[in-house]
Amino acid sequence: MNIEGVLKSYDLDMLTITTLASHSALQIVHGAKLEGFRTALVTLRSRSWFYKQFSNLIDHFIVVDSWSDLCNNSTVSKLRELNSVMIPHGSYVEYVGLECAEKIPIPLFGSRYLFAIEADQHKKMEFLTRAGIPTPRIYSLKDKIDRPVIVKLPGAKGGRGYFIARSSDEIVERLQEYLSAGIIESFDEVIIQEYLIGVTAYYHYFYSPILERVEILGADIRYESDIDGLKRLPPNIAIEIGIEPTFTVVGNIPLVLRESLLPKILEYGIRFVTTAKTYVKSGIVGPFSLESIIDRDLNIKVFEFSGRIVAGTNLYLNGSPYSHLYWNEPMSTGRRIAREIRIAIEKNAIEKVLT
Ligand code: AMP
Fold first, then answer.
1. Mean per-residue pLDDT for 319-343?
2. Is 91 annotated in some ligand binding site?
3. What are the pLDDT digits (tens) for 50-107?
4. Spatial separation of the C-alpha atoms in residues 199 and 305, rounded to whole Å
5. Closest residue (by CA) to atom 15 of ligand 1?
6. Residue 319, in any domain of the structure
7. Is residue 352 part of a domain?
8. Which residues lie with the beta carbon below 6 Å from any ligand 1 atom?
């Protein structure tokens, strides 16, 4: 795949910021428009009516019958005609599959080489450990499980199918069911993590290779069913009914952090970027997120990361209390992406932000 060659054929004054119609697409096209770019959405036929409500923000619709059509020759040539730059968001790999996500012959904003690490829960945790970022303990099925653990399925399943367990037997029994149902192909695909007690906090960062700095653009809390819904039941009733908590994300709640926590949070972001430079080809570019639990002693442990824009950034279409400090104007993550591309073009350094 020769992305440099594709870029040479592009008119950089006529780039089209493109993404898949889901996740944070509206924020991305909104930000792109504010920065003066043309925009395109690749959308499933069934969803196009909804996105057409926002045709003030979307110049071109590329309608497909299935997400896997993204890598078809006809879609790729339409994208190239538009001088498209694809913005991979949190659902991108989940929708189009790892192979198409990595190999699509269209310039991507950010690194396409991080996707394979993100697809593997074990590699992800290894990456965080290398970066010196505190993480929860990881168990294997052979270990003695001495505390509650959370068992996670691969990919960005939005917390679906996760369960909390207290013993290896319980885990094996459940995973056998998942195997028989074809939900997983092997036990190695899941990760067993210590279940951390504390509050959840998800940080939105942006690494600019052009300005050579890491920015904190915001933070959020996920609103998850039923783990958050269970708080609405008196505990004795919840126990009586025996509801098992699930972690399906249904939305995001804004979060402003104690200012004294910010240096540590930024430090972890910087460690993440520094490690990515040595560990992943092209390092990390643009938005990424660390997902954490903060305990009663204000220790932060990171249980997951995303190397792309996360949906919690949708809260801050008009900027966040943090993005304002850097930019003093309404700066969403979507707009920040477009701004980075714009500055890169002005500085003749587009290859620093696209792969
Ligand atoms: P994830 O798919 O890793 O983002 O996890 C989905 C949800 O599960 C998170 O938003 C948390 O509510 C919860 N969760 C994940 N990992 C842990 C952990 N190690 N300890 C406690 N809760 C967790």
1. 98
2. yes
3. 999 999 999 999 999 999 999 999 999 999 999 999 999 999 999 999 999 999 999 9
4. 16
5. 303
6. yes
7. no
8. 136, 150, 152, 159, 162, 193-196, 200, 222, 224, 227, 247, 291, 293, 303-304
